Structures are given as structure tokens and as C-alpha cells.
Amino acid sequence: MDIYLVRHGITAWNREGKWQGLKDIELDEEGITQAQAAAERFKEMEIDGLYCSQLKRAIKTAEIINQYHGLQIERYADLNECDIGPWDGKTLDQILINYSEEVKYWHNDIWAIIEGVESLGDLQRRAVRVLKRITKKHKPNDKIIIVAHGLAIRSIICWILNVPLNQHGTYLMENASVSHIIYDGKYKYTISSLNETWHIENYTMRFYTTLQEKELD
After folding, report:
1. Count of domains observed in the chain
2. Considering 40, 63, 81, 180, which one is annotated as catalytic?
3. Which residues 6+ apart lie within 8 Å of 98 measured at CB?
4. Do the Cβ atoms of 189 and 211 come closer than 8 Å?
5. In terms of C-beta density within 10 A (0-12 exposed, 13-18 middle, 19 or more buried), how is residue 206 classed?
6. CA-CA distance, 61 to 70, in Å (whole number)?
7. End-to-end CA distance of the chain
8. Beta-carbon contacts of residue 111 (< 8 Å; ≥ 6 apart)
């Protein structure tokens, strides 16, 4: 089974360096173009399932990809971005002024208990849960697309690689990037490619380092 994990297109908050959690921010014009680039990447591929989170930026990205496939898009709350509570919509500098100790604790301890903030461990648990739920719906030779968010996708990648979750920042996960996962239909998930961006480069678009790509410790 081929699983394509797609990060949503860029938003104004991404470009401004604001951290996005459950705040429901729309794609901006550039994000829509990025999503179109992803759509062109999958245009000639037969896709058997298309899934996304319940947040607008992922839904819109999935809808743009779906223009060539006409599938019923299924939305799952377990694919939503991490609930970062009071940090949502703030820049890293703003967060570190008021929440320096809390954010370091959250980053270093994946089961950190901080009021209003979802732990990385809980994020990974639900993201992996929905990945398994989705793959059970499909046949071994199916191809599926899952549109989600930076940290949610990173948590899945860390689980597949058996990498400590607080090391998620050691690789890039850019907006509208594609990561290709192969599932053997029984037990094993294997990463075929990570953070593909050639489809965006074909549009000669620039890349942004969003807060999810910045080290918090």
C-alpha cells in the first residue's frame, strides 16, 4: 500500500512565523497555488482514498488535490494539528517571553502535562491510531493520500522510524510537501521518501521556514 502524507499549503500565519495549532486558519493565495502543485503531482495517479483533518487549511488542500479524482474526502479529528492552547497564533519569540520553561518542558518530555496544551505523546498516539484505522479500510495495492499538519505528520514519521518524538525537528516538513510511506498490509510501515517538494519547485515557488521547523529547546 502506498500512503502519501501531504502537509497542507501555506497560510499567512506560516509566513509570519506564527505557530498554528487548532486555530482554523485558511490557506492564503500562495498556499492555494502550492496545493495546486500537489494536485498536479498526483494528477495521473489512480488514488483509492483521500483523507484529511477537520481544519480548513487541510480540507482546502485535499479538495484541490481531489479535483482530478472525484473521491469522497473523509475528515478525521485525529489528523488535526497539535492543540497548543495559549501558544496558538504567537511567534516563537512571543512564546519564549511568557512560556519559556513550559515550552522547553513540553518539547523535552513527550508526556508533559501543561494546562491547555496537548502533549506530543498524545498527539502521536492519536495520529498513529487514525493511520492504522485508515489503512485497515484498504487493499494491499491501494494508493491513498492523507492531508494533515506539520507536527501530526512528524509524529507519524517518528513512530515509523522509531525515533524519539522530541527529535522531530531534525528533518524538514515543508508546506505542501509529500512524504511517501509503504505499508506491507500487515505489520511494517517503511518510508520511501520524505518531504518531497519537486512539484512545488516546478512552480518556481519559494519556501518558508515555519515555526514547526524551528528548534524549541
Report:
1. 1
2. 81
3. none
4. no
5. exposed
6. 14
7. 36
8. 119, 121, 122
For 141, the 3-state DSSP assignment is coil
pTM comes to 0.92
Give the structural domain span for 58. 2-183+190-213
| CATH number assigned to the domain comprising residue 164 | 3.40.50.1240
Look up 8 and say whether it is catalytic: yes
Instruction: Spell out where the chain has E strands.
Output: 2-7, 49-52, 74-75, 143-148, 178-183, 189-196
Report the C-alpha gap between 28 and 65 in whole angstroms.
16
How far is 201 from 180, CA to CA, in rounded Å? Answer: 18
Q: Which amino acid is at 63?
A: E
For the stretch 127-175, pLDDT in tens is: 999 999 999 999 999 999 999 999 999 999 999 999 999 888 888 899 9
Residues 6+ apart with CB under 8 A from 217: 104, 107, 108, 166
Of 20-24, 72-76, 207-211, the poorest mean pLDDT is in 207-211
User: Which residue among 8, 149, 168, 199 is the active-site one?
Assistant: 8
Is 81 an active-site residue?
Answer: yes
